[in-house]
């Protein structure tokens, strides 16, 4: 919040600088301006802009912005362009590089550590603010935790050996302190704190349908359990509650060479309900609303927003239809709106 306030102040000062420069240049063109110590030339414009925004702006963008202002005083450029971001055609200017497409950030750090191998892709990325780290899961089974301490990143990864099943999503269990990931037929619970290379987690299987997405329900005050929501390729949404006792009481025999302990899915009570007539593309729980959302490319039951209790009964759910379905959605608490993308 403090960074946002600082940025707004800097932006206001920058816009005042531009207005003052336009007034000065307009007077110059009509012969009414008398030079004084407050004259804004390029050097003063460059120095002031650098002071306001620091390394977030690049020299070529400052120069281009200044040139654009003085060449056409009636049609001033958008402030976004000082960062190399353009809202329309750039009038022949070179397109901005990906390096400059960041606002509100004065320092950017690139993590060069490779967490995936060739022909692998990241399928899930989750930020865990309370613990200051980020979890990623790759399609071919690499689970990684990036932790930030003292302004530097370090990471530790785990490779989940599998035959053909690909990881389709991941999240973090805040109470049990496990990383959860789903494949086409299993649920993976990784104890990232364990220093053992084997048996440092659990696999719940088999799951009858192909799991496509997963999220954590952040409502439980019980530090010994977490609740997980999952969506599959048949339009079903599942509700799975996992406790510390499950890890002890429901273990199956584990092979010596196995990475994980196996838990039989039939030993769990996993309510499920068919909410869509096509794949469940994304599922998310909103603590502020005490509701979960799920979406699908289904044109009839495109988006559902309701209490997780609806997964355990047959009461009607709140849903709406969008032509060709919904692929993504999010909630903005400040604006109190849900936005969907189809």
TrEMBL record:
Asked if the Swiss-Prot or TrEMBL record annotates the protein with the keyword Methyltransferase, the reply is no
Q: Which SUPFAM superfamilies match?
A: WD40 repeat-like
Quote the Gene3D superfamilies the UniProt record gives. YVTN repeat-like/Quinoprotein amine dehydrogenase (2.130.10.10)
InterPro entries in UniProt: WD-EF-hand_domain (IPR051242), WD40/YVTN_repeat-like_dom_sf (IPR015943), WD40_repeat_dom_sf (IPR036322)
**Entry keyword annotation includes Repeat:** yes
Superkingdom? Eukaryota
The UniProt keyword set, sorted, is: Repeat
PANTHER family linked to this entry:
WD REPEAT-CONTAINING PROTEIN 64, WD40 REPEAT DOMAIN 95
Q: What is this protein called?
A: WDR64 protein
